[in-house]
Amino acid sequence: MLRSILMICVFLLGGYAAQAALDPGYKVGDKAADFKLKNVDGKMVSLADYKDAKGFIVIFTCNHCPFSIAYEDRIIDLHRKFAPKGYPVIAINPNDPEMQPDDSFEAMRTRAAEKGFPFAYLVDEGQRVYPQYGATRTPHVFILDKQRIVRYIGAIDDNHSDAAAVQKPYVEQAIGALEEGRAPAETFTRAVGCTIKARK
Q: Could you tell me the fold of the domain covering 25-195?
């Protein structure tokens, strides 16, 4: 009997481990670890630096991806709308510049200056942060509350190609819920964008 119970436990643990391997990264409800990454101004930035933040809109994005480019103005608008309310955008470029030279640190600095990014645009040197989050696309959003609990994962909205045709502004709706002390109605959507370029 004891042997049978042990076999079942081993089987279940193996199944959980296999699922975790297939679906890595944070889930809604997990607490995200802080990080310290280099901003385009050369300064190191962490979530702890935002003393008055009520939460964070962490967006993995980049320079070269057409989806990221299509969302740049919307990301700027999100920061301008929600940073004054305590929910700043923290943009992170996860791509390896050897795999995609357009996403080098110098190219990031140029793009940030061209667009006048009002938010931190950080480089994930060594590609250590994006796997923790489980980001797979650019852009890929993770909304955290004040305690760094993940409250939403997914897309910015439901129409990457036409901002005027958006029916579901997922990020805005999620932040609106958090402002009212509620859980977001939608906590997970499929991120649409370019695959993250990892060193082979």
A: Glutaredoxin (3.40.30)
